Each structure stands twice: as structure tokens, then as C-alpha cells.
Amino acid sequence: MKIHNVFPRLCCFLTKSQTRNTYNSCRAFHSTGRSQSVVLTKTRYPNLKRGPFSTLGDVDVQFFERLLPGTGRVLADASEIEGYNTDWLRTCRGCSELVLRPKTTEEVSAILNYCNTHNLAVVPQGGNTGLVGGSVPVFDEVVVSTQLLNQIISLDELSGSLVCQSGCVLGTLEDYIADYNLTIPLDLGAKGSCHIGGNIATNAGGVRLLRYGSLHGSILGLEAVLPNGEILDCMSTLRKDNTGYDLKQLFIGSEGTLGIVTAASVLCPQKPSAVSVAFLGCESFSKVLDIYKQAKGMLAEILSAYEFLDEASVAVNKENLKMTSPIGDFPFFVLIETSGSNGDHDEEKLNTFLEAMMSDGLVLDGTVVTESTKIKDIWSLRERVAEGLLHDGYCYKYDVSLPQAKFYDLVLDMRERLGSSVIRVVGYGHVGDGNLHLNMTSPTYSSEVMGNIEPFVYDWVSKYSGSISAEHGLGFKKRNFIYHSKSKSAVSLMQQIKKSIDPNGIMNPYKVLPEE
Amino acid sequence: MKIHNVFPRLCCFLTKSQTRNTYNSCRAFHSTGRSQSVVLTKTRYPNLKRGPFSTLGDVDVQFFERLLPGTGRVLADASEIEGYNTDWLRTCRGCSELVLRPKTTEEVSAILNYCNTHNLAVVPQGGNTGLVGGSVPVFDEVVVSTQLLNQIISLDELSGSLVCQSGCVLGTLEDYIADYNLTIPLDLGAKGSCHIGGNIATNAGGVRLLRYGSLHGSILGLEAVLPNGEILDCMSTLRKDNTGYDLKQLFIGSEGTLGIVTAASVLCPQKPSAVSVAFLGCESFSKVLDIYKQAKGMLAEILSAYEFLDEASVAVNKENLKMTSPIGDFPFFVLIETSGSNGDHDEEKLNTFLEAMMSDGLVLDGTVVTESTKIKDIWSLRERVAEGLLHDGYCYKYDVSLPQAKFYDLVLDMRERLGSSVIRVVGYGHVGDGNLHLNMTSPTYSSEVMGNIEPFVYDWVSKYSGSISAEHGLGFKKRNFIYHSKSKSAVSLMQQIKKSIDPNGIMNPYKVLPEE
């Protein structure tokens, strides 16, 4: 056990260009023709039947061109819409022939009213950073992109309520409110591209959920357009409002199947004046949990993230992204972030905590950084694993919640089960939230490997009362496994609500709810 | 300006017996015959029509007696059910002839199935501490009490998820988990009597919302019985679960109109090891806001409550409850609570903050306490105002959210408007949440006073985009004012959902949704 090496040791193991915002560069895949190599979803799932929707005609396109005048608002050219048809993971590809880019709620309303009347299916799309094929067409759905719904509307500095259109990029919002000493209550690796509307539609979690809770608590109000074009005004900037059913909650996490979120009000917490990140090595997953328990008690109100990576995850960084780790090799790594209003107090708490962890033998080695570029570098180790895995070829991606004690056993069982049929099986994620990211890779998609993974992984999770999708949603790829995490009564009520709000089923079909 | 008197000054101005749990003693009103003095709701609102429900018959009572064997499970004696017919404020009284006290979800299911089949209207009731007449019958609805659904089911110490039946008393849960170093994410003056199920059904706010957020974030799962008796299983102990629509959210704040919550899973945060409370005097409401702004920045992550009382509120304590204030008379009082994991750090932050507030002239005098009984005493000053007001006779009670800057103007306008027609107009509440409690009293109910208050108060709130019910709900008394805070499109969708889930309208009729 090394104890001399804990902190303060600044790490300088990543180049400056390796920033957190890697989604933008991957997004560029789509516009360079690489999307064509992605198998069409309707080809990969030959038994899937297209819904009884109309087929887009010239008269429809002409209507939309009149509705949305100006350049770049109605895209119908195959090369222009290629990126909108393909998901970030390059595992789903639709064949939509039309992308619409409205700028106002009224335009969204007119679009949906027209599509509903003419029985045209619609897929809403934000930053297209989703991981379950929820934001791209399955067949030929019309894509309604929120890219131009990108205006910040207002900010109340005292209460912290930020009102904006749904197409605002998360990172842009974060930068904007930083000047007012506020921060956004969620943080994702995709923040350079993802839209707040997409975050809301998917109930995005991310690394700050441990501190600031879910969007069900942080979204104060929203405006959505229902499938029939009606504008649902649930906008509010109030922290408390108990007047009737909290309808906005229905749209948080319904993945665009009940309507399109056009604007939202976000409760933004005070920006911490001091942030520290510790990156620690330890010998087992049970030690990861022991350290977490201590962190909850000793870091308490300043703990803002508690993440872990296994050795195989860090190997992805090293092998595929040529990154280096600031500490040696260990079976498990823990990333702890603290944020607070008094750097001296936070440092004292963190030091006391780390000394206790070292003397208890829970932590074997570690480093602590406080400088923002160094913090970003450490975070890159955690956040770029998803990108690194894509370099292997095809990535089988799972995002599950489990009781923390059973958390890592799934990785071990999967590794044993798949053996050499895959390149690797890695586990990392949000320990504090009980949220494991389980990933397997192979050079290309293999139905044999997939058959070994599913439904095994879902059965495993279900056995321990976990969630088969902790934060990524069900989208297209996981919808038929919904019963592994939800009761029949619950799914039946979801279907009832869907039918009531979207009787023609035009909103994001083939997503979330299971095939009937 | 006095600066010598700030802290540490321990206050000893209340007797030990004056605890926070004053709801229990008031609840006793109901069983001593005093309820009979409350005007029947159907008499006070003579134009209100009873819904087309069946009338309870002997055969129905016999069914329920078979279903719920044992003593005290089916109450039909007038004196026994008097308290269940009357609300805590003694402003609403129904004439139900039957109270049912199930112990299991299956019993609740059988009750609702029977009532739905036989067209009997039902009102669910928890601790009956609501303030808008939501938990008592309007006419002769059958009362389904959650009093015997009072079992704690499980606790996961590491994740903090507590699973219990819906009739558990909030304070009992808090005491139970304190042994595990956890605390409940909401705290109310009514915690000695209110049930967690009622808290969920009304989306109760309380004094910790500033720190831990609303129940939409803290409730991890729930089980509810739908109006047709079907059991909706949305139970989960997971912090993250994005598998389909988050149906539990619909039941949080729907005030028992969509079903009866029978069990829930609550995310319990780490119990703070150090708590301090400061009680401060200042000269204007704009200073109250200035102090809040500074507290957000300087106390940040340890700030757990920021409350205010006006001079008239403190006068209620003094005149009607014979309490004394630990500091002199000031136009406004601020109660600040900090909670954290390191008492020394918290004290240093609080001291620095208070010194700055004194030297800026924002705070005129104050006291700080850290001992738990003293903390309770200070909190009593804030939490017993509601009780004290009842001693005047009739209390016209409003609970609104407003943009913080406009917050107190409503009190001033109301005071001017009502003049000497009322005993007093007081304002206090949760400044940090933008939530004002506005109260007027008169010796007895006066329709003339009421006509001067409503709809004026709702119009005023609506003009500034506030909420006419921040945390109390709409219940029976405020349902017809829903359009002052919610759009037509939103209310229409609420009605659509209500009709879809409760087609016969048996669940808590005459509540939440407006008269058609």
C-alpha cells in the first residue's frame, strides 16, 4: 500500500485538445458520408412492421416549405439529412426524407397539426446524442429538429430560474448562467451538443444527479406541443405550484412520444466557488462501496459526484484514445468530486476523508486536483470511455440501475458468459446513483453475441429488481424489454395515456412502449 | 443598530411542553364534540350539487364489515366518525356515515373495486392535516383512512431508500431512520400527525424543500390503487429508472383524485451532524431579500431553510400563544437554518455571514442557537403561527407562490383593502421558495370579508404569474380558481386524464378540478 502519493499531485496526462465535448466530433461522422455504412434499422429488424402512416408526398413538402420560409429550415436533400437519420452510436438508421427546423412554438404546432391531420409520423430530435435509438427515425418518419429553437428567454438571478427554448445546447446554457454565479443542475459528457429539450424528454441523469437530483425536481415548468398541434402551456418559474396535476412530469422522460417540448424553465443552483476532484485506486468493488459509504458521511453536503471505472474501462482510454492515467494500475478506480462555497473547508474535509481512507487501507493510491483544466482531464478519463469503446467497432451498450451491493456482479457474470466472443466487457458509472454502464464490444455487430447478451442481461437486472434503463431511456432498442422493469399494470396505464394523448400514434412511433 | 447582541445567545423563551407537534392536540378537537360547531359544507355552499353517486346502504356496510374484520376497522357510529368529517382548520364538514380503515393494499383494492362497481364516492384520508378541505367528505363520501396502513417495510442504509406503507406518520419515519444516520427530505409543522401518503398525494413542501427539493424528486417509487381497484405497482428503490413514463409523478400532488397511494419509497438524505438556527430582525422586506441573496452565496450548500415572519405574525405568537421572542420588535424577522457535516465549518460560515450582514446594516439584531431544544423553540415561532391564528376565530388562509420581489406587496395591499373588517392580516413563509403564507382572521366566518378577499387575492397572484396554491393544493376550497394559475390547455388535459383513469368520478369528487 502506497500512502505517500495521495495529494496534492497535479496531473498533466492529457493533451489540451482532448476536451470533454467529444460528441461534436462524433456528430461530424454523419455529415461525412460515414452514416451510409450503418445498416438501416428496417433491414436489421426485418420483422418490424411500418405503422399505418401516410407516405410523404410533394404536396406535404410544399406545405412545410411555405410554413418554414428561409434557408435551411426544410431539408429534403439526402446528403443533408443523412446525419439526422443515424444515431450517435451508429447502430440505428432510418430513411426519413424530410427534416423540419422550426424556430417557434407556433411553427411546431402547425407542423404537428398538419402531420396529425395527414397521418404522417414524426420523430422529434434534439442534439441526437441519445444511446437507444430514440431520436432517429425507424422508417420514414418526418424529423422535427429543435436546432433552431435555440433562444434563451429569461433568467431570474435571485431564484435561479432560467427560461429557454428546448433547442438550447446544454453547455451553452451552462456558459451563459456562469456569469450570474449559477450552474445547470445536470452535466453530461454530451453537453456540447445535447439540447435541454432532449435532456428533458429523456430525463437525462448525468454526473450531478447525486447532488442536484433528477429533472423531475429541477424543471420548474415547460411548454409542449401535443400530437394534435395544441400548445400545452405548463410554463412556470415558481419553485412551488400545487394547482392541479403536475402535467409537465409526464413529458419528462416520455422520449417525445407524447409531444414535443418547445420551452422549459430550469431551476439553476448556485455555482460552487470551489471544486476538487480526487481520482483513487482500490482493490475491489466492495472497497468502492465502503469508500462511498464513508464519503456520504464525511463529505456529505459537498459531495457532488461519486463515479467508478473498472480496470478494463481505463484500458479503453489507454488503448483506443492514447490517454494516460495519473495513477498506477488498480482493479478499480473511483472519481470523487466535491463542490462547495469555501475551498479551505472543502479541502479540509477532503483531506480528512482521504487520510482516513488511506489509513483504513480502502484507498491504495490517488491524486487530487483543483485546477479546472486538470479537473476536466480527470473527468475525461470517465467520460470518454463511451467514445473509446466505439473504436473497437460495435458497442453493445447497457445502462442499468441495481442495488449497489449487486452492482458489479453483473459485469463479472457477463465477462464469464461472453468469454472471447467479444473484445471486452467493461463496467463504469455512477455508483452514488446505483447506475452501472455495462459495455461489450466486438469488431462488427454479431447477432450471436447479441443473443448471448439479451435477454440474459435484462433477466439478470430484473431478478434483482433493477432498472434495465437507468438514464438512457428505452427508445427504440429497449422498448420490448419494458416488462423487465415495469409491471403490467404500469405499462397498461402508460398505453392508456399514450392513446388518450396521441390517438393516431404519430408521435415518435416504435419507441418506449412495447410492440403490441 | 445593535451589533453586540448577535450570537451565541441561547434562547429560553418557551416552555418544554410547547413542542412543534401541535396538530395532534388540535386533532383532539374533533373527538370532543367541537366539530359539531363547524358548519356543514353542503350548508355553506348551498348551490353545490351532490354528484350522481349511490347512497350507502346496510348491505354496503355489511360487505365492508366482512371485508375488514376486527375492531375499529369499519366505523359507522356518528361520534366515532365526527373527526373524519371535519378538517383541521374547522372550515369544512362533510356528512359521511362510514369510515374504513384497511391494513393492506389488497383491502384497499377490494374497497375501491366495490365502490366503483356500486357507484359509491370515496375520499381518501391520511392524517387529516390538510388546509384546503381536500381530505374530508363534501357530502356523504365513504372515508378510506390510511391510519392502519402504517408499517415500515424496508430500509437500504447505503442508498437511503425507505419503503413504507402510506399511513406511516412522517415524524415516526423521521425518528426511525435517525438511528441509521438518515433524515426525511421533508419537514412540516404537522409531522406529528400527517401521513407520508398524504404528503405524497398533496406534494407537501415544508421547510426543507429549499435544501432537498420537492417530492417529485424524493419519491423513488410508489404503489397506488386505481379507482377501479386495480393495483398500480410503480414501486422502486432505485434512484434512476428511465423505463417508460414516470407514472408515480401523476399521483404526487393529485390529492387523491386518481387513486389511493398505499405504499411508497422515499429517498432519505444523510442526517446532518450539525444544525444551527439564526433568528434575525430587519427593517424591511427588501432587506429580507438582500439577506437571502447573500445567504445563497455565503451559506450555499449548508443553507437548509430561509423563512420570514412579519411583525404581525410574531404578534400572533405573543398574543394568542403567550410565546416570547428572543429578540426585540422589528418589522421583519428572518429564520435561517444551516445543516452540515462539520459544525466548526458551518459555524465559521454562519459567523462570517452574520458579521457581514450586521456590518452592512441588513440585520439589526439576532440570535443563534445550536442546541436541539433551543432550535425547536425558535422553529416554534415560525410553525405555530398557523395554530395561533385559529385562536382569533375564523382564519382565511392563502398559500401562494410569487416572484420574490413582489412577494410582500400582496400583504400590504390586502391589509389596506380589508382595514378594520378583520382582526389581522399576517404574512410569513418560505422566502427561499417564493412561497408566502397570507392569513387573515375574523371572530367568525364573514361572507362579506370573504367577498373582499376572493377573487381579489387570486387575481393579484395571477397578475404576477404566481401560483394560487404553492404547497397546500387546491382541494375543495380552491378548485374553482385553478385557471388563475393553470392554462385552459393544461386543465383540459387534467380533465382528460381524470376521466381516463376514473371514468365514474368516484375518487375524491368535488376536489382539485373545477366545477364543470
From TrEMBL, chains A, B:
<dbReference type="Pfam" id="PF01565">
    <property type="entry name" value="FAD_binding_4"/>
</dbReference>
<feature type="domain" description="FAD-binding PCMH-type">
    <location>
        <begin position="91"/>
        <end position="271"/>
    </location>
</feature>
<dbReference type="InterPro" id="IPR016169">
    <property type="entry name" value="FAD-bd_PCMH_sub2"/>
</dbReference>
<dbReference type="InterPro" id="IPR051264">
    <property type="entry name" value="FAD-oxidored/transferase_4"/>
</dbReference>
<keyword id="KW-0560">Oxidoreductase</keyword>
<dbReference type="InterPro" id="IPR016164">
    <property type="entry name" value="FAD-linked_Oxase-like_C"/>
</dbReference>
<dbReference type="InterPro" id="IPR016171">
    <property type="entry name" value="Vanillyl_alc_oxidase_C-sub2"/>
</dbReference>
<dbReference type="Pfam" id="PF02913">
    <property type="entry name" value="FAD-oxidase_C"/>
</dbReference>
<dbReference type="GO" id="GO:0071949">
    <property type="term" value="F:FAD binding"/>
</dbReference>
<comment type="function">
    <text>Catalyzes the oxidation of D-2-hydroxyglutarate (D-2-HG) to alpha-ketoglutarate. Also catalyzes the oxidation of other D-2-hydroxyacids, such as D-malate (D-MAL) and D-lactate (D-LAC). Exhibits high activities towards D-2-HG and D-MAL but a very weak activity towards D-LAC.</text>
</comment>
<protein>
    <recommendedName>
        <fullName>D-2-hydroxyglutarate dehydrogenase, mitochondrial</fullName>
        <ecNumber>1.1.99.39</ecNumber>
    </recommendedName>
</protein>
<comment type="similarity">
    <text>Belongs to the FAD-binding oxidoreductase/transferase type 4 family.</text>
</comment>
<dbReference type="InterPro" id="IPR036318">
    <property type="entry name" value="FAD-bd_PCMH-like_sf"/>
</dbReference>
<dbReference type="GO" id="GO:0051990">
    <property type="term" value="F:(R)-2-hydroxyglutarate dehydrogenase activity"/>
</dbReference>
<dbReference type="GO" id="GO:0005739">
    <property type="term" value="C:mitochondrion"/>
</dbReference>
<dbReference type="InterPro" id="IPR006094">
    <property type="entry name" value="Oxid_FAD_bind_N"/>
</dbReference>
<dbReference type="InterPro" id="IPR016167">
    <property type="entry name" value="FAD-bd_PCMH_sub1"/>
</dbReference>
<dbReference type="InterPro" id="IPR016166">
    <property type="entry name" value="FAD-bd_PCMH"/>
</dbReference>
<dbReference type="InterPro" id="IPR004113">
    <property type="entry name" value="FAD-bd_oxidored_4_C"/>
</dbReference>
<keyword id="KW-0274">FAD</keyword>
<keyword id="KW-0285">Flavoprotein</keyword>
